[in-house]
């Protein structure tokens, strides 16, 4: 083989290879174009569906335009109302401050009157207690002595052994002699008088 034949053979192989690559590229391009066509048709459908919504929004904006023109005067009048309310609140604050001052003065006067009244009542109470105390003590001592005289004398049994109760729940005397202490009304009345 001559070099020209080899060169022609290499050129032929290169040409076949270029045709195959061109075919593969065209196939990929066709799939891309098909997907692009589908995307454009979907986009057209979405725009067709959105067109009535846009028309309604356009109509709503046209209706809102006069309302927006009325908002500015409303804002001005609300600013005026807020200013008036602020000045009223300042006046109310001054009135409340005056009321608190008057209330504080009244509370101080009430405390002063209350302390004077309490001290006068305490002095009168002390005076009555001094006059009333001797008579009340004598009456209390007489009443205590009379009450003690009316009570029977108490006897207390002191001892360690106690007899067991029989069937009639009566105690039997203990084996040891029992010690008795007797309290007389005269002893108790003397103790109460000493107090």
How would you sum up this structure, described in words?
This protein has 195 residues and is mainly alpha-helical. Helices cover 81% and strands 4% of the residues. The chain has two helices and two strands; from the N terminus they run H-E-E-H. Strands 1-2 form a two-stranded antiparallel ribbon. Helix 1 crosses helix 2. The termini are far apart. Mean pLDDT is 77; it is low at 160-170.
Task: Provide a short characterization of the protein structure.
By secondary structure, the protein is mainly α. The chain is built from two helices and two strands. A two-stranded antiparallel ribbon has the order 1-2.
Beta strands, count? 2
- Coarse structural class: mainly alpha
H and E order: HEEH
Look at the structure and give the mean pLDDT.
77
Unreliable parts: 160-170
Estimate what percentage of residues fall within beta strands: under 5%
In the sheet with the most strands, the strands line up as 1-2
Tell me the Rg in angstroms: 61 Å
Biggest β-sheet, characterized?
Answer: 2 strands, antiparallel
* Helical coverage, percent range: over 70%
Count the helices. How many? 2
Morphology: elongated
The first-to-last residue Cα distance is 157 Å
Entry keywords:
single chain, 195 residues, mainly alpha, two-stranded antiparallel ribbon, 2 helices, elongated
Describe the secondary-structure layout:
Blueprint: H1 3-150, E1 155-158, E2 179-182, H2 185-194
Antiparallel strand pairs: 1-2
